[in-house]
Amino acid sequence: MKTLAHRSAATVPQPDHPYKVMALYKFASLPDAESLKAPLAAFCCGRGIKGTLILAPEGINGTVAGTPEAIDALADYLFADGPFGTRLAGAEVKYSFADTAPFLRMKVRLKPEIVTLRAPQVDPNRQVGTYVEPEDWNGLIERNDVVLVDTRNDYEVGLGTFQRALDPHTANFTEFKDYVAKNLDPARDKKVAMFCTGGIRCEKASSYLLSQGFEEVFHLKGGILKYLEVVPETESRFAGECFVFDERVSVGHGLEPGTATLCRACRHPLTEADRQSEHFHEGVSCPHCIGESEKHAAAAERQRQMELARARGTAHLGDDAAHTAARRKSEKQAQAERSRKANGG
């Protein structure tokens, strides 16, 4: 019997792109996570699927890409026919498409948590906040009695966020607990709404707030990615682009690849303004890592090796994917600029 998640894999529209991207997570009891790791890795590698999947006793999380046929087969393996049985039924699954391979290799990792918060009292399988469908999100966050919090890290927020959202300025998710302790008060903040990239961080964040005595906690079902997929751009309250953890770097409305690129020295996402900075040097440095000379030296050597490889007519690992993605972004930016000028912008 095929699960609902599998049927969505089979029926989702298949645009004319060679790569299908699957992002998924599910909090579920997987005490046998260690024994599931090797078979899952073998299944993916045998079908040319690349990306990262994290297994933990509390569930699964990750993003992978491959041919549409390979990703549909993986959906069968995870949700219907494989060793997971029905434990991943109802997983949060999102599909998108790409012209170039978003990942360079396949990794299946075993970790204590599928998203690290280090709060033992938190159990999303037992208690989470109230899910809000993307179509209902605007109405909620426009209310004056709702505190809106972005649970993502600072470099993600810098590319785009919802209007009126509070930025916790965290470098990693474990710092979110400190932000809550210092900035939110259950006696004052009666209604708190939260969002993240795909929904997984909010599962734990909402469970954590409820454990701390907050009464009404809401979170965006499917995260920003689902919102950008289903809410028309004309009605959107999301400004900017959404950072994603692959070579696409960011996506916009309709989950189309965005214009952000990645600093190859510090891995910080870069806007057009960042790339115009005097501190930006392709493959070497950016405004976010200008004082980190060790990273610059390593990045400069990597850039030199890539240029030597291109001069020899050979490919350096990661060179093709990164430069193809950068070229496509450049073409997209040029097209947008031509369109703006043609319309008198």
In short:
With 345 residues, the protein is α/β, with parallel strands linked by helices. It folds into 2 domains: 4-110, Alpha-Beta Plaits (2-Layer Sandwich); 117-259, Oxidized Rhodanese, domain 1 (3-Layer(aba) Sandwich). It has 11 helices and 15 strands.
Could you characterize the architecture of this molecule?
By secondary structure, the protein is of the alpha/beta class. It has helices at 4-11, 33-45, 68-81, 134-141, 154-157, 176-183, 200-211, 223-230, 272-275, 293-312, 319-342, and strands at 19-27, 50-56, 59-66, 92-98, 106-110, 130-132, 147-150, 160-162, 191-195, 216-220, 238-240, 242-243, 250-251, 261-262, 269-270. The chain has two domains: 4-110, Alpha-Beta Plaits, CATH 3.30.70; 117-259, Rhodanese-like domain (Oxidized Rhodanese, domain 1), CATH 3.40.250. The protein contains eleven helices and 15 strands. The protein has a five-stranded mixed sheet with strand order 4-1-3-2-5. The protein has a four-stranded parallel sheet with strand order 6-10-9-7. The longest helix has 24 residues, at 319-342. The radius of gyration is 21 Å and the shape is globular.
Secondary structure: elements and pairs:
Blueprint: H1 4-11, E1 19-27, H2 33-45, E2 50-56, E3 59-66, H3 68-81, E4 92-98, E5 106-110, E6 130-132, H4 134-141, E7 147-150, H5 154-157, E8 160-162, H6 176-183, E9 191-195, H7 200-211, E10 216-220, H8 223-230, E11 238-240, E12 242-243, E13 250-251, E14 261-262, E15 269-270, H9 272-275, H10 293-312, H11 319-342
For the largest sheet, list the strands in their spatial order.
Answer: 4-1-3-2-5
Considering DSSP H and I runs of 4 or more, what fraction of the residues is helical? 25-40%
**What would CATH call the class of the largest domain?**
Alpha Beta
One letter per element, helices H and strands E, the order comes to: HEHEEHEEEHEHEHEHEHEEEEEHHH
Whole-number radius of gyration? Answer: 21 Å
> Low-confidence segments, ≥5 residues, pLDDT <50?
1-12, 316-334, 336-345
Assign the CATH architecture of the largest domain. Answer: 3-Layer(aba) Sandwich
Give average pLDDT, whole number.
Answer: 86
Task: Please state roughly what percent of the residues sit in beta strands, choosing from under 5%, 5-15%, 15-25%, 25-35%, 35-45% or over 45%.
Answer: 15-25%
The biggest beta sheet is recorded as:
5 strands, mixed
Q: Quick one: how many beta strands?
A: 15
Q: What is the end-to-end distance?
A: 54 Å
Structural class: alpha/beta
Tally of separate helices? 11
CATH superfamily of the largest domain: Rhodanese-like domain
Number of domains: 2
Form type: globular
